[in-house]
Known about the structure:
Low-confidence stretches: none
Distance between the termini: 9 Å
Number of helices: 6
Structural class: alpha/beta
Helix content: 25-40%
Strand order of the largest sheet: 2-1-3-4-5-6
Largest sheet: 6 strands, parallel
Shape: globular
Radius of gyration: 15 Å
Strand content: 15-25%
Number of strands: 6
Amino acid sequence: MRSAEALLLTPGAGGGADHRTLVDIDNALSGRLPVRRHDFAYRRAGRRTPPRAPSVVAELVGDLPLIAAELGVSPGGLVIGGRSFGGRVCSMAVADGARAAGLVLLSYPLHPPDRPERLRTEHFSRVSAPCLFVSGTRDPFATPDELGEHTQAIRGPVTLRFIDGARHDPSSAAARRAVVEHVGDWLDALGA
């Protein structure tokens, strides 16, 4: 049995499941394994600003078994993640005990821009799932050095991939292709 049976992707705080990077990943990988792009309840209700992360984490923890059942996979066979806030929520859910085959964390918001002292890493030491971080080298939410330093707290295997010159939202087609390639290669190594 494959360790990665399906991929669940969630958007950043102000975006939706139709974000072009998530759509590109879905289009590229859905022939290999089931891919679900998932909006959180606040987005489905038409709001752009999320509630505090813990309430979204609790929502996701409750949704994961249902999503796995809809995709026809075991809850532990889901690789979960997403862009920025969505990836952070997924990592917090896994730290709180949600089952996942791995985490795909795109443009992880390690800290607010220009506020490196306000780290969003307190849960990292409780993450033991394999993790992929894909980030631009010019992302103001996390530099490559900062990610390299702070992801050492994660107990599971960590893979870091950087897209030269990209910012928080990889806008060029080439940068988005690089994100897709990194995710696909990592899933191959994970056993998708």
